[in-house]
Structure formats: C-alpha cells, structure tokens
Design a protein that fits this description.
The chain has 13 helices and ten strands. By secondary structure, it is α/β, with parallel strands linked by helices. The strands form two sheets. Strands 1-2-3-6-7-8-9-10 form an eight-stranded parallel β-barrel, surrounded by seven helices. Strands 4-5 form a two-stranded antiparallel ribbon.
Length: 335
Amino acid sequence: MSELNNIALKILENGKGILAADESTGTMTKRLDSVNVPSTPENRLLFREILFSASSMSECIGGVILYDETIKQVSSKKNKIPELISEIGSTPGIKVDTGAKILAGSPEEKITEGLDGLRERLKEYYKLGAKFTKWRGVYNITKNFPSKLSIQSNAHALARYSSLVQECNMVPIVEPEVLMDGDHSAKDCYEKTSEVIKKCFDELILHKVDLKGIILKPNMVLAGNKSNEKISKEEVAKLTLKCLKNSVPSEVPGIAFLSGGQSEIEATENLDLINKNNDTSFVMSYSYGRALQQSALKFWSKDIKNIKGTQKVFNHRARMNTLAAQGKWSKDLEN
C-alpha cells in the first residue's frame, strides 16, 4: 500500500471523520458576528484551540482541515497548531484553494481559483506539518446549470490541484459540491451530482492521480432547500449510495461527506442511514464544519472562558457522528 493510501485510511479509520475548521477569516468573522463575539485572531484561535484539545479528538476526529492563518498560529501551550493536532493523534490538513470566483463565459456560475503558485505553497504547508489538503468546487442546480463549462472547468482544476498535491506527498481531498440551494428535486440532484463526480474522475485519471491516495468529499443527494418535494431520509441514503456506486472508481479508499447546510441532527441521521445500508467497499464518513461546530460555538459565545463546557458540547457531536459513520447511531443517544 502506498504512503498516501495509508494516510487516507488512517484519517477515516474506525468511524473517525474530519473536522473542517478551514473557514476563511471572512467566513469565521460572519460566524463570530452571529454569536456576538469579536472576530480577532486571538478569538478565532481560542475557539479552534478549544476544539482541537477536546477529548473526542483522539477517538473521533482523524483529520482537521486548517486555514492559512491557523496553520501558522501557536497555541496557548506554545506549540504550533499542527503539532497540537498531531499530538492528540489526529492528522493536520490545509485548505489550499483561494475561493470560488465568477466563471468567465458563464457569469452565474463559479470556478475555484488558486492554482497559480500552488506548488510553492504546498511545499511550505508540508514543512508546517500538513499531511492532506482540500480544494472545493461548487456547482448550482437550475434549469440551465451546472453547465458543461462549469462541470469541465472545475473538474480540470480539481485534477490539476490533486496532481500537484500528490507530487508533494500529501493526500488531496477532492470536493465537488453540488449546492442544495434552489427548488430542484432529489432526482435533479442525483443526476447532476453523478455527472459532476464522473467528470472529476475522468480528469483525475487523465492527470495520472493515484486514486488510492485521495479522499472524495461529495454532497449527499438531497432535494433543494426551496423545493416543495418531501424526501425521506431513507430515500436520501438510497439515492446517495446509488450515485456513488455508479460514479466512483473502486480504488478510492474513502468518502467523507460534507454537511452542506443540513442541520447537525440531519447530517448525523443521513450519514447513519447511508452506513446502515452501505453495500460498497468505500469507507463512508464525514467532513463537517458547521454540523460539528455550531452548537459548540453558540455555547462558547455565552462565556468564551468556559472551555470545559464548550468541549463537552463538541465532544457529543463528534461522538454522534462517529457512531453514524459506523451505522450505530440512534436518536435516543442524542439525549
């Protein structure tokens, strides 16, 4: 087994998932503003460090995606953040794209940028301790979108990124996110997600990316958040599994779902049902941001010095999701 395959499997072993703590300064400021906490570098670090030193990290969180600011910060115990994460038994990673910008030729769609100078940035992040990376492409569903241009352009960027990351001995997380914003049906989501993922793998193979050394981070198959269609959790699991079985090559070691605007409980429940019905060889886990942090953030904002209480809230969510990643969660456990 290759070194990259070992890293990917270690991140997702035994129901472990990934904590997406890679919010940009702008996004993190919005999150902190929403709970009336000033967004200073100190406060951003304080909240993240509370999570990174929680007891559930060693048992539930196999990897942490960091942001450029955070990977260079030093903890209150004077160790570097990647060291803090490694010491607790988790793997440090880094978001390397520079965000989604307007796609030339289709101004209502987005293309993710950040390939210029990426090789040099990757070398720096590797020296700082990162073992894996993340790049997100976004696609919206309407009558005309995602366009062939958007599907092709984002797949090409994800493949070029992945190739550079593996050249630097890190595992790329490939994140093609078909957004749940809109009034589309679950069937539309299934069809578009399948098309997007298949095109990504066409490009990954073309760019000679070792599929055994990546992690796929897809959306679940859901009806749009403005859709009148009511789709059961069982149907979400069924369609998601069908989509991935038909679109993802068997060499891929693991799939870590994004929560994509689902509530904390929805993201856990859907993951659990996917795993209770998982008849594939893929490890199916989670790579959640808000769905792991939101309750902890709300609790912490009432008293930013209450470290133990905040960690207790975070530990609960992490444990619930790790049970769901093993198909062992039930609603009763939430209380």
